[in-house]
Amino acid sequence: MDHNLKLIAQISMPSLEGPGPVFNRKDPILQLDKILSTFVGFLSVIAILWFTIQTIFAGYKYLSSHGDKNKIEEAGRSITNSLLGLTISVFAIFLVAFIGRILGLGNIMDLPSLFNLITK
Length: 120
Prior knowledge:
The protein has helices at 2-10, 28-63, 69-102, 111-119. Helix 2 runs antiparallel to helix 3 (69-102). It has one domain (28-119). The chain is an all-alpha fold. It is elongated, with a radius of gyration of 25 Å.
């Protein structure tokens, strides 16, 4: 029994690192840049997909209204709202990238690295 405990004690265990490839303990600014880039990039992609799908559904509502004035007005409002949301989302991406550059965070909207992180 004592011999088994000595053998177990001699086994080298790998060292544990941080929670993942996003974090870098040596450079906290780089860590903040990666976190913000991942968060903003992910939300931007989701928002653009959401409003694109809403625009398609609003167009379908318009096509399937069969001349009903109320349904046409409702579909028109839906198209307006979804296109407005899509425009605001795209504008927000440029605004966040601009603010990131002013603050010296580099390319906060690094979407290729975001997709590489998601597809790993």
